[in-house]
Structure formats: C-alpha cells, structure tokens
User: What shape does this take?
Amino acid sequence: MLPFLRSDLAQFQSYTPHPGGENGAGHSVTIDRLDTNESPYDLPEELKQKLAWTYQQTIETNRYPDGSHTELKALIAEYVNETSGTEARVEAANISLGNGSDELIRSLLIATCLRGEGSVLAADPTFSMYGILAETLGIPVHRVGRSAATFEIDLGAAQGILSQTQAPPVRAVFVVHPNSPTGNALTPAELEWLRTIPETVLVVIDEAYFEFSQTSVVAEAMQRPNWVILRTFSKAFRLAAHRVGYAIGHPTLISTLEKVRLPYNLPSFSQAATQIALIHRSQLLSAIPLILEERTRLIEVFSQEPALQVWPSSANFVFLRLHDRGAEGETLLNQIHQSLKSQGTLIRLVNQGLRITVGTPEENSRTLDRIQKILGKD
Ligand SMILES: *Cc1c(COP(=O)(O)O)cnc(C)c1O
Assistant: This one.
C-alpha cells in the first residue's frame, strides 16, 4: 500500500462488470449478455444515423459540453409528466442529470452523509452500488434483511436502525422500485413505512426499471421534500453506452446536487444521444411489451422445473433460486452458472440465486434450453 493512500481503501476491490468471466468480446460463439439488465436491442439504425449527423453537423469537439443540460431537462420533464399523471408538475428545477445514476447516488451521498454527518440504510439483497459508493466515501452502511418468501424489507429492523442509530445518524435510506436482483416492487406496507420517515432523512427511490414496471411514485415524491427519485437511460432507453441518469426531487436538493457534481459531467455526444432517444421515445419503448411477454414465458417455464424457485418480476429480469439451499444446492447453482457461461450465456450469480436479464426471444429460448438440459431434462 502506498503510504499516502487512505488506509481503509486497501480492502476494496475495483468493480468488475462480469465477475469471474469474460464479456464475450473476441469470441466466435454468440454471447448472450444477460447479466447486466440492459435492453437486448441496440438503437435503431436510422436513429444512429441521426446521431452521427448531429455529431458531424452540430457538435464542436473543441468546445466543452452544455454544463447546464438545459434542453435535456426540458425534454425529461415532458417525458416524466406524460407518464406520471402527476398533479404537481415536474419542471427543470426538479431535475439533475448524472453520468449514469451511479454518479447521482454518489452526489446524494456527498450531499447528505459526508464529513461524518450521516450513515445510510439499505435492505439486502439490493443494488450493490449504494453500499460500494458509500463505503468508498467512508460512510457507514446499515443493512437489514428481507422476507425469504417475498423479499419484502424487514420493516421492524429498518425502523429500529432508523430510530436508534446515532453518531452518525441515518441520513439516507435507499430503496429500489422494483428491486434488483429480486424484481419486486415496493408494497403498500413498505410505502407506508417510507412515509413515516422523518424529514431529517432523505428517502432515495431508485426507479431504474420504471419503464418495465410502469409503476412510479414520482407524483408523491413531488409532495415530499425528503423523497428523491432516480431514473436511468441505461435500461429501457437502450443507452447504457452513454451513461445518463437523472434525479427528480425538491428544487433545493436538486440545486445541491448541481453544486457537488463535476461541471461537465455529461459529454456532448451523450447529451445528443439522450435527446434523440427522448424525441423518439415511443419507438424505443415499443419494444417493452415483447420484453414483458418474454419475461412471462421465462417465469412460466422456470416454474415448471421442480428444482427451481422463481419469483414474479416487475422488471426486465427474473430471479431464481434452487429449493435446495444446502451445500449440494450451492454446488448445482455454481454448475448452472459455469455451464451457461461456457456455452455463451452470461447471467449473474448473486445472493444465492441467479438473476437473468430478459433478452431477445432467441436468447431466452437458448437460456431455457440450456438450463433445462443442465437440470437433466431435454
Ligand atoms: C442498472 C441500475 C441503475 C443504472 O445505473 P446507471 O449508472 O444509470 O447505468 C441504477 N440503479 C439500479 C437499481 C440499477 O439496476
């Protein structure tokens, strides 16, 4: 360890996008990348051409990007208002853009917990970046569990931590709606608990999968100064390559996020891609019904496998576990993961289960075939 480095960082690992394996680049076999919950569909050719034209005609590469994101915020506000049916309308002042929602998570942590002023609370299993980003900033993370049957948050434990933790107190609670890797949306009881959280604590509701779940709490968040919604263009909007996410919240929180972010966090090319995606949103989002049908097909077939336990999903992935959670089950789970990988199907082995992104119909058929063969049935 270099002597000038913060001593707590020695124990951290850098993030590996495809743990224990390759991403498929350079392989001759078809690789089905079903491990990162992206859309299986690239931007359509004509939209790529539009983007290329924008690059050639309007982007001056010697100039810094628009650091205020003015046009994008207006387009996002229009999109959010169109889908949320909210009485309180979302405006540009309610929106901050990040280099992926990952950047917004970090900005929220900087804005609430740094300088030893706060700790965060999350319910495992959940999106790993909340814990990772908090810990790299030296912010304590409190974790509670979930019901093994439904993945509902252990609200008693959560409330206990919230009301008893001091030095530093909980300043931010992170939930995902619907959760990753388990696919469940917030229940009425969970929402009711979030409503009881005092205004001294920020409630972060990550709606990365909103376009698949079609359920949002934006309208309510607009009435609650301590709620903030996170969304991303990395999933349904097919723009993972461009790294664009946004936060919707109270103008004072939003202007604070704008203070702590880097001034030119969004490259001009990413801004242009996002504008094109928003203008053509009905075309891009028209793929969603098929993805949802395919999700139903995956769940139906998996639920006919006696060895597998599969849960409903409100997102573009399914989560499954083996009924046998003993040592043998664990071995089989690893075998399924490894065998799929060797055949070119990448999925996530996470929290004693498998998270499988819904891909194209062809990819899903291959996944089903391969898993059925591994489980000894063809
Ligand atoms: C994929 C995902 C994101 C998106 O992160 P980006 O940095 O915008 O790509 C955010 N939250 C959750 C829960 C996710 O699964």
